Amino acid sequence: MVLISELCGGADGSVPRAWEAACTGKDVCLPPSGASYLASVRESAAKFAGSVGERLVRVDADKARGYAGALDMAKFDAYVKHVNGWTRRLPLAFDNMAQELNLIALLDLLQLGSGFRKELHEATGRGASDTINFGCMSLHISQTPIDARGLQALTLDDVAQNFGIPLLGKERPAIEGTTAVMISEPGPLRPLAEIILGCLHDTARRLEQGGFSSLADFVIRTCAEKSTAEHLVKKLVMAFPSLRDAADVGGQQVYLFKKAQLIAYDVCQRFGSADPRFAFPDIGDMTLFVDNVVPAVMQHHGLLVPCEEVAAKILSGAELSLVESTAMRAAAIVAAQLVVACTSRAASPSENGEVSVCQATLDNYWWHQGKEPGLRVLQRLVCKATVYF
């Protein structure tokens, strides 16, 4: 395989400026050669949460232990199984496994835009996740090519049309005092459309330059080399800046790798039982796929205690800085590991259908719980300038 992480973008390397600004981890130093990327997430999150991040967010260890002991395991099993089965519930027909895998990988690559949740609901009635699902399914149903070449051919108007994202906002007179000629200003959701387009273009260019026809081709060939989540996550992060979910805070690297882990997890859940290439034995080593929802649910349960300033920002729906959002997300990983360590079922699934408790399954549980009517009203993390969640 070509080491495509060393390759540049397209012919002129141009990408939308909104994507460039949102891809904050593209220049962060990656874990050293030979290091485990999954272990690096846990270790770097713990180090950051215990130093710089602790001033912003505190992990309540006592609450974590109490929460683990009181966890409703029947509800846990039901919620995790529901989330695990989402790929099988896609209302779509596929010609083959590779086509389905490609769409699932694309859906996970584009799990972004949560910071625009309010604007999306106001303009379209859909949140960020539903917007991405709607857009990707629209591309599939319209038979738009979503391989490396097809994704590079997409325009901003294509993104707006397929994802239902309005590009224009209010109109204003071109000349003050007359309405003969009106000019439309860029709408508040235009940056989101640009971030999506940049994510698609940059990823597709790197695929083509590396000799891969699609995301599915990349995943299949990577898993043929070595059938582990660790290997796939590492290759995805090295190859694609839009998956390089990391931050450098004062020279300290914090690795989160949410979407790369999510791709590996969903591929394993969908295809692992039928194809040994995707039956990853190390799924339990993954961390939370930490986004805007899960930390909010964990804060609700008292596992995370943000400082007064960060708590006020979250409560008011104000945008968090990169350092503040990183602190919340890193602390969530630390708190989740405490819950896992205090749970008696933190092992392999049993024969009676019970789900093992690990960070990945806790993520499924908390994410689903955050969609309950009583918790859906919780204020979530807001960070617009990110391509990672």
UniProtKB/TrEMBL annotation:
Q: What class of enzyme is it?
A: hydrolase
Q: Which GO terms describe its molecular function?
A: hydrolase activity
GO biological process, alphabetically ordered: tRNA modification
* The enzyme's E.C. designation: 3.2.2.-
Secretion signal: which residues? none
* Record key words, sorted: Hydrolase
The record's comment on protein family reads:
Belongs to the QNG1 protein family.
Mind telling me what this protein is named?
Queuosine 5'-phosphate N-glycosylase/hydrolase
Q: What is the lineage of its organism?
A: Eukaryota, Fungi, Fungi incertae sedis, Zoopagomycota, Kickxellomycotina
